[in-house]
Amino acid sequence: MRLSIFFTIIYVFHCSLGSVEDQGNEFAEFEDFEDSDSNFIDVETPAKDVLQHSQGFEPSLDEKDEPIVIEQDNEDEAEVEVDSEFEHFQDADEFEGFEEKEEKPTAEPKITIAKVPVNFALNWDSYYLEILMIVGLIVYFINYILGRSKNSKISNTWFKTHKQLLEDNFTLVGDDGSGKEINEDITLTKESENVFLLWCSGRTCCEGMLVELRLIKRHDIVGLIANLIRPTVDQVHITVRMNREDMDSFIFAVASKKTASQMVKDLQDISVYCPEKKPGEKFNIPANFQVMSEIGEASSAILDAKIMAVLNKYPEFIDYIHFSDQFSGLKPTDDANNSNAVNKLPEVDKVLRFGFNLTTKGVRLDEAMTRLKPLLNMVFYSIDKVKRYRLSKEGKSKADKNRQRVEEAFLKSTHQARAEAAAARREEKKRQEKDRIMAEEDPEKQRRWEIKEEKRQAKKRAPRMKQLKVKAL
């Protein structure tokens, strides 16, 4: 009895000492596992050797070698356990149709450039579009150079032929507006490749004279083709601006049939004051001319013996003659009428306009320009004649009535246009006010505005009555 109690105390004491040692050693719990793991031996054997030994299969070179763990219970016996990762190697269907081939290191690909023979036999049919474009450009530039030189030669020849006559009638010939002194080598001002200008001033009864040469667009091959369809000729247009006090109130024009129709259609003064065209036979001039005149006595006065002689002698050179004290240019378009309806009457000038044809076909250039000298002499004669001419009392009264009638018609049309514009502005203002009221969130204010608008509309529709005051007897 005493012996059992003694062994019990020793056992408890021994257990308490063991717990104290375990508390001091934190890794005591893993010591048992180390002892148990001593029964296993790690054999670093490549996986491919194991598989080759088991099934006679050698895996590819890309597969990595992995260790195989061999569990040994005793020193004499050892059992090989294959990891489940290689179980698919044991499946025969996994490698069906697979033949092992030794992989050889790949070499760099060799590029072989085939030698294609050059075809020196050019096929021009493949380049016909490029050839046409190149030929067209060459022809265009050649025509541009030749046409420009031809127009410059015509303008210079005309100026040299008439220079002395111009200097005899004007103090200043060739003023370009720069204010610089004119030298002896003055020429026409080049407006474009086919338009040349010349301004002359310093003569009594006129402010100046503008000479404009409008030649064929010889530099433009497209213009030449258009000229074949609708033929035109070189022309000289002369515009003389008369002083206000040196020309009476009348409008007169004589022109070829084609030009006369165009003048009636396009020019404001001709279409308003003298749209009626009369044949030239009535005035003893060629039949290809038509006369348009506001006052009959002005036609007989202008077409005197000298001017009729020029018209009869050079009918192919004269395109038109136009005298007007109400010249304002072309008729305004509909858009211009709508935008400028409230403006005043267009400004007018007193001008003498002449249009001459330059016929150079079949003759030398200097000879063709010499034949035009009598036409320029007729221009200076017309300037002096218009300065001296005055209408009779009846003619003057008729001319004044015509101008007053045109002014009243213009004011009437502008008054109607102004009224329509004012009505449109009022309607726009009312519409904006309505939009503003409806945009506000005030039903009472909207209701008051609607009542006010209904009263205004009712007042507008009500018949207007005139009140008369009668004095009592």
What would you note in describing this structure?
With 473 residues, the protein is α+β, with helices and mostly antiparallel strands. The chain has helices at residues 2-24, 31-37, 47-55, 128-169, 221-229, 257-266, 268-273, 296-302, 305-313, 334-339, 365-370, 373-388, 393-439, 443-461; strands spanning 40-43, 68-71, 79-80, 172-173, 189-190, 195-201, 206-214, 234-242, 251-256, 278-279, 289-293, 318-327, 349-358. Helices cover 46% and strands 15% of the residues. It is flat and about 175 Å long. The protein contains 14 helices and 13 strands. A hairpin with a 7-residue loop joins strand 2 and strand 3. The strands form two sheets. Strands 4, 5, 6, 7, 8, 9, 10, 11, 12 and 13 form a ten-stranded antiparallel β-sheet that branches. The protein has a three-stranded antiparallel β-sheet with strand order 1-2-3, with no helix packed on it. Helix 4 crosses helix 12.
Q: Provide a count of the helices.
A: 14
- Shape by Cα distribution: flat
Largest sheet: 10 strands, antiparallel
Share of helical residues: 40-55%
Structure summary, number of beta strands: 13
- Give start-end ranges of low-pLDDT stretches: 20-24, 26-78
Radius of gyration: 57 Å
Report the structural category: alpha+beta
